[in-house]
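Obj.: predict assembly geometry.
Materials: sequence records (below).
Method: joint structure prediction, all chains together.
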Amino acid sequence: MEAVILVVVIVMLLSAAAVLLFKDFLAALAAMSVVSLGLSFLFVVVRAPDVAMTEAAIGAGLSSLLFALALRRLGLWRSQ
Amino acid sequence: MRRFTAALFLLGLGVMIAAIYQHMDFSNTAVNAGQAINVVAAQETGAANFVTSVVLAYRGIDTLLELTILFTAAMIGGMVLGRRRIDAPRDPDAGFILRTGADLLFPLLLVVGLYIILHGHLTPGGGFQGGVILASAFFLPLLARPGITLIDQRIVSLVEGLAGATFILIGLLAMFDGKEFLTPLFDKGELGALISAGSLPVLYLAVGIKVGAELAGLLAHLAEAEALD
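Observations (raw structure tokens):
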């Protein structure tokens, strides 16, 4: 189990760095929701399914949607 | 100048984290509320999901304030976005896959959202999570076919307001019996049954509908806003 957690944490760190480095806003958004999904997996591991569900629904789902719509409003929607 | 302030901020953050790390004992938490609630929650509230018993029974007023915060955020979002010009061009319909997927997923998401809300007192999940899923269910058709109106915006606001009022009314009902605001009411029933835990499922249903209507309205408003292309 610890190996799985280690992999998830590394993936989360890499995608968090990718959010800062990607030039394409939509790609950065996708990387951001990967961080949230990894976090919700970690919540399941520490036996907090309620929090995991909230993180998956709000962190990975709704906030990415809000960011995507904000990008569209600002005209940064098209991927390069 | 901006770089300097950013560096200063990072330095302050580092000092703060170091100070917390120095003085806090993470392994031995002094708070024993968790164990105490685990022991008594099932008898006192009748909810099989102890998180729900904390969210709605022991800390119901916090949930009410949380709803208020969400309401304020959604309202200000709507205010900032403003109105759309009538002659502004609409986005074209999405491709075949998104349109068909939206049609297929809409009823499924509705069922999943309502299931999570109605089983909030039994299994993980509840009003907030289910409400977000309901909101995304109502947003999906909008993504597939921009410009259609699924439900009139006024009806959405009305439903949202009624759900919020229901939450407060149930809280006030307890006060007529001389108990504290938002004390759980009604018969607790059998632990683990769908109709159990007294007024908690009703409260969670109100929370779910309010959150769903609010976020669906906000998403529809954002999608409606003109794109700067």
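Conclusions so far: Chain B has a mean pLDDT of 83.
To do: check interface contacts against the pulldown list.
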